UniProtKB/TrEMBL annotation:
<dbReference type="InterPro" id="IPR020189">
    <property type="entry name" value="IF5A_C"/>
</dbReference>
<dbReference type="GO" id="GO:0043022">
    <property type="term" value="F:ribosome binding"/>
</dbReference>
<keyword id="KW-0963">Cytoplasm</keyword>
<keyword id="KW-0396">Initiation factor</keyword>
<dbReference type="Pfam" id="PF01287">
    <property type="entry name" value="eIF-5a"/>
</dbReference>
<dbReference type="InterPro" id="IPR014722">
    <property type="entry name" value="Rib_uL2_dom2"/>
</dbReference>
<dbReference type="GO" id="GO:0003723">
    <property type="term" value="F:RNA binding"/>
</dbReference>
<keyword id="KW-0385">Hypusine</keyword>
<keyword id="KW-0694">RNA-binding</keyword>
<protein>
    <recommendedName>
        <fullName>Eukaryotic translation initiation factor 5A</fullName>
    </recommendedName>
</protein>
<dbReference type="InterPro" id="IPR012340">
    <property type="entry name" value="NA-bd_OB-fold"/>
</dbReference>
<dbReference type="GO" id="GO:0005737">
    <property type="term" value="C:cytoplasm"/>
</dbReference>
<dbReference type="InterPro" id="IPR001884">
    <property type="entry name" value="IF5A-like"/>
</dbReference>
<dbReference type="InterPro" id="IPR008991">
    <property type="entry name" value="Translation_prot_SH3-like_sf"/>
</dbReference>
<dbReference type="InterPro" id="IPR048670">
    <property type="entry name" value="IF5A-like_N"/>
</dbReference>
<dbReference type="Pfam" id="PF21485">
    <property type="entry name" value="IF5A-like_N"/>
</dbReference>
<keyword id="KW-0648">Protein biosynthesis</keyword>
Length: 156
């Protein structure tokens, strides 16, 4: 009864899962993932400087963007939180290549037709294997609403 006349608008909710999660900088490890300058990256080098006169150790990170391969660097106090992307890795069977897009099949039989053929050596390798009639599996990583083919293997 006390709520009468009050508009309860809590904004739109997103039923999807989060794209990132926070983790304390000191808990990050080489080989793990982190977001630097808004991009999902794999950490390739880390070093921690000693505490300075203001009392916080700093963590220097060098990381490679998982989609572009670009090197990014960041420095953060070890006690601060950084965002870590949720990275998923899945294998699909290649069905077709149509107009520069891969047609892939999941384990459950569903198809995926919105992934572009990579414009690099991997893309050439995928195209050559497809042209030869070889049955191949494509490894796809996805993070932060982006995805890319990153690997290929022959199916036995």
């Amino acid at each position: 009864m006390a709520d009468e006349g009050i508009d309860h608008d809590f904004g739109g909710g997103d039923a999807g899962s989060a794209l990132t999660f926070p983790i304390q900088c000191s808990a990050l490890r080489k080989g793990g993932h982190v977001i630097i300058k808004g991009r999902p990256c794999r950490i390739v080098d880390m070093s921690t400087s000693k505490t300075g006169k203001h009392g916080h150790a700093k963590v220097n990170m060098t990381a490679i963007d998982i989609f572009t391969g670009k090197k990014l660097e960041d420095m953060s106090p070890s006690t601060h939180n950084m965002e870590v992307p949720i990275v998923k890795r899945r294998d699909f069977q290649l069905l077709d290549i149509d107009d520069g897009f891969l047609s892939l099949m999941n384990d459950d039989g569903s198809t995926k037709d919105d992934l572009k053929l990579p414009d690099n050596d991997l893309g050439k390798q995928i195209q050559d294997s497809f042209d030869d009639g070889t049955d191949i599996q494509i490894t796809v990583i996805s993070a932060m609403n982006e995805e890319a083919a990153i690997g290929i293997k022959n199916m036995a």
